[in-house]
Design goal:
Pfam families: RrnaAD
Largest sheet: 7 strands, mixed
Keywords: Methyltransferase, RNA-binding, rRNA processing, S-adenosyl-L-methionine, Transferase
Radius of gyration: 23 Å
Strand content: 5-15%
Strand order of the largest sheet: 4-3-2-5-6-9-7
Helix content: 25-40%
Enzyme class: transferase
Distance between the termini: 31 Å
CATH topology of the largest domain: Rossmann fold
Protein name: rRNA adenine N(6)-methyltransferase
CATH architecture of the largest domain: 3-Layer(aba) Sandwich
CATH class of the largest domain: Alpha Beta
Order of helices and strands: EHEHEHEEHEHHEEEHHHHHH
Family: Belongs to the class I-like SAM-binding methyltransferase superfamily. rRNA adenine N(6)-methyltransferase family.
CATH superfamily of the largest domain: Vaccinia Virus protein VP39
Amino acid sequence: MPPGLRAAGGVVKKSGKKAAGGFTGIEFHKGKGQHILKNPMVVQSIVDKAGIKSTDTVLEIGPGTGNLTMRLLEKAKKVIAVEVDPRLVLELQRRVQETPYAASLQVIQGDVMKSELPFFDICVANIPYQISSPLVFKLLTMSSNFRAAIIMFQHEFAMRLVAQTNDKLYSRLAVNTQLLARVSHLLKVGRNNFRPPPQVDSSVVRIEPRRPPPPVNLREWDGLVRLCFLRKNKTLGAIFRQASVLALLEANAATMAALQTGAPDAMQHASMFIDADTAEPADADPMEDDSAAAPSDPNQLRGKKHKFSPAFKDHVLAVLTSRDMSDKRAAKLSQDDFLALLAAFNSANIHFSP
């Protein structure tokens, strides 16, 4: 996935000449996503669409040298900026010195994916694109009751986030994200709005967490959705007839039976929800990769002998038939369809996480 874009203002080239913002000597690295959002109208549009109140604390991820930061400080009570590059931290601190906003800015140097995020009301982010999916998942599974996140993504990724049933880009990413949040596309940002221009266009997306969150076991939910989108254009009947799927589900059923006896390890494991920091490696896309192997993925069983009982197969297919789902395809299913299917399977003691 291509690197993302940064709203890093005041950059100069190696020649050392001053640019907007008055800072010199900073060389930006394209490979780290350090492209500069140079269009002030786009910066202002992002701030306007964020809906910031004068009492808000704003978390800004990837502030660069602060073009967007300065506009956010004009609107918010406080801005907490998380920046991994120590050079940019220094430039941001210098930029805000001796301004009325110096006391309103807190800068945290570090990797946002490895940092414990403080309280905030609104998140505004221009990020390296390789962390797009993990960051969305981290934000949506944290306990903080933030109001919205306004994030710049690669345009295609943004379109996948907002995709609806029957859309070409409808995927596990869209289903999982929209379970936890309302997602809307705000504006497309062409590559020529950045210096140097990246290879792709960008889009700004608004993500509003559902409060309260849906009463769904996320491990069970993701296990079902992952299976269904392994072959999203196959019917569910075909997917749930696969020997690897049936063997996996019957093994899960045995684990759940043991859990009901009160086995401590099984009880602890079953109570876990998926977490971006612990369930998968930091560089994985826990919401995006429709075919990645995971604890609930039958691909892990390739090369093994798949054993399941005929009675269990009949049991699984009976649930599909009772919901009139055997001939349906994942690409055609809505959120309500997935929720109803998960409830029916769980009620029949069929589970998608060990």
